[in-house]
Amino acid sequence: MLDTARIRPDFPILTKKENGSRLVYLDNAATSQKPRKVIDAIVHYYSLHNANVHRGAYALAVEATDAYEAARTAVARFVNAWAREGVVFTRGTTESINLVAASWGRANVGRGDTVVVTAMDHHSNIVPWQILCQEKGATLRMVEITEDGRIDLSDFGQALEAKPKIVAFPYVSNSLGTVNPAAQLNRLAHAAGAVTVVDGAQSSPHLRVDVQAIDSDFYALSGHKMLAPMGSGALIAKPALLEAMPPYHGGGEMIERVWDDHSTWNKIPHKFEGGTPNVEAAVGLGAAIAYLEQLGLDNVSAHEQELARLTIERLSQIEGVTVYGPREHRAGVVPFTYGDIHPHDLATILDKDGVCIRAGHHCTQPLMRRLGVAATARASFYIYNDVDDVDALVMAVRKAGELFGVLAS
Amino acid sequence: MTSDLRELYQSVILDHNKRPRNQGAPRDANRHAEGHNPLCGDRLSVHVTLADGLIKDVGFEGQGCAISKASASLMTDAVKGKPVKDAETMFEAFRDMLAGGANAPGKLAAFSGVRAFPSRIKCANLAWHALHAALQNRAEPVTTESAKDF
Questions:
Q1: Residue A302: inside a domain, yes or no?
Q2: Partner residue opposite B40 with nearest CB, options A344, A352, A403
Q3: Residue A151 covered by a domain
Q4: Regarding beta strands A263-265 and A139-143, do their DSSP bridges make them parallel or antiparallel, or are they unpaired?
Q5: CB within 8 Å of B49: residues ≥ 6 apart
Q6: Each residue's pLDDT tens digit, A7-60
Q7: Best mutation target, B65, B114, B120, B145, to test chain A (most A CBs within 10 A)
Q8: Active site residue A363
Q9: For chain B, does the N or the C end have fewer beta carbons within 10 angstroms?
Q10: Do A54 and A100 reside in the same domain of the chain?
Q11: In this predicted structure, what is the pLDDT of residue A327?
């Protein structure tokens, strides 16, 4: 387990009282809290180095550009990207996936083609493909999940028989916590001739990611779920794919030369970074990566998995609690329901004890339909959570049961 | 248990959550509307038998949290047999109460505790907005994100 007594003081927000209780923040799959080092990096950037990047002919602009590009190097190292040029800064996973759909997708998907997604994908890895398929007259094929919440590999194989142009899936499910066999899925998809898009929103913060080892063509991540500011994120792609793709947003920075009636494009990754970028977000993301690398991502995974295991064990002792997701290969995400108590009521009751959990469909409505529930409660862990947090959660859940006089269903 | 939780989940609310009244559409219903809270995915539809300006019968279907379910249940009890204009007056009083005004009449006052939980006001209002839409014979489902005064 991580030394949370040393980690917790790094997070200013954790000293806050919530409804008079210690803040028990268990909604990390939605967004993480930020350590002082990340907050300071942003303040430091604006206090000492701020200027527009890639254009000023003065020292300050060079400093800003260096800070921005150093963050790119950090991201490339963090996920073992194919190349520095294969890291495009975006606003997060959603924008990264939309970039691929709008650029690679529009250029390569046509009438009668197929795009494959899974029933456990987040809306951000479903809706961009729905929009693309509707525009192009292509077919969207959703791969089913098994009863214990894993991707159904036989259905995945069947979906590949259509020779899809794109196969998209989450590395880690935000609703179930399932860690999918990304390398295997990429290999199968490539053998069928597809390009793969891996939603890394829930894997990047929590496990050691190696995009070359799993061989993903496109990999999307969000900074705000991994200690960095909101609005930070990246698309990590094979450089050859980016080279061949049309641009996404037109504007400054992404061009080489602009004529009256046409333009030529800047080199990758700048071709995809039209307009002044969010430098503060990139700088914050770089600081967040440094913090996580110091802890070691393997230690982070082990810590969260232990908290999740303990939570599942303790919640399962309460009659009427159902925990969703697979027994093995799961991250620090624990989705559950409790008898006939609606998850929103649970969240309200827990909040009174300072316990923050998510209640709802978690942006995975197709998955919720398959689970046969309208909503679940979800506790998700990160580096600053400890056994006290698990205790507070379980105690508050028991309280909710007393208040509602649960009927075990 | 903190006192505002007890205020929120008063026994009448817990009772109507557990044993909702007027579930299902009346056989002779001639109006209905659907309410949807996209934030949580909750949906409920309200069915009304309307004749001569009177709500002769009313029922609801759908899924929701204790607050939205109990609100639908207590609402249907409160408006059944009442003239449409009385139902609209009750809706106004109910909305006023949740916005910080005086308690609504009768059992509807049980929802006064919702005021302390701003994130749950939409849950309490959902059934009322659906009823209002049904009475106005609106075809579009109402959502908690479209009505200004939810």
A1: yes
A2: A344
A3: yes
A4: unpaired
A5: B26, B28, B29, B30, B31, B55, B56, B57, B58
A6: 999 999 999 888 788 999 999 999 999 999 999 999 999 999 999 998 778 999
A7: B65
A8: yes
A9: N
A10: yes
A11: 85
d(Cα A61, Cα A64) in Å, to the nearest integer? 5
- For residues A8 and A93, membership in a common domain is answered with no
Give the mean model confidence (pLDDT) for residues B30-54.
89
pLDDT score, position B145: 66
Helix (H) or strand (E) holding A187: helix A182-191
What CATH number does the domain containing A252 carry? Answer: 3.40.640.10
Nearest CB among B1, B17, B40 relative to A399 is that of B1
Going from N- to C-terminal start, the domains of chain B cover 3-143
Nearest to A404 among B14, B42, B123 (CB): B14
- Beta bridge mates, A140: A115
Please report the number of interchain residue pairs, chain A to chain B, with beta-carbon separation below 8 angstroms.
55
Question: Which element (helix H / strand E) includes A96?
Answer: helix A93-100
A327–chain B nearest CA distance, Å: 27
Whole-number pLDDT of residue A409: 47
**pLDDT for A163-183, tens place per residue?**
999 999 999 999 999 999 999
Strands A195-199 and A166-170: parallel
Domain limits at A358? 4-30+296-404
Tens digits of residue pLDDT in A59-81: 999 999 999 999 999 999 999 99
Give the total residue count for chain B: 150
Asked if the model's pLDDT at residue A408 lies above 90, the reply is no
Rounded to 5 degrees, φ, ψ at A272 are: -105, 10
B117 contacts A404? CB cut-off 8 A? no
Distance CA A36, CA A11 (A): 6
Whether chain B has a CB inside 8 Å of the CB on A190: the answer is no
Fold (CATH) for B3-143: Sufe protein. Chain: A (3.90.1010)
- Residue A255 and residue A342 in one domain: no
Domain stops at, among A278, A293, A308: A293
Q: Nearest C-alpha of chain B: how many angstroms from A182?
A: 30
Report the alpha-carbon distance of residue A254 to residue A277 in Å, rounded: 11
* Average of per-residue pLDDT across B60-89: 95
Task: Please indicate, yes or no, whether residues A308 and A227 belong to a single structural domain of this protein.
Answer: no
Assess whether pLDDT exceeds 80 at residue B51: yes
Alpha helices in A221-342 (DSSP H): 239-244, 279-295, 297-316
CB A79 within 8 A of CB A210: yes
The C-alpha of B14 sits at a distance from chain A's nearest C-alpha, in angstroms, of: 7
User: Per the structure, how many domains does chain A have?
Assistant: 2
Q: How many residues does chain A have?
A: 409
Lowest mean pLDDT among A40-44, A139-143, B144-148: B144-148
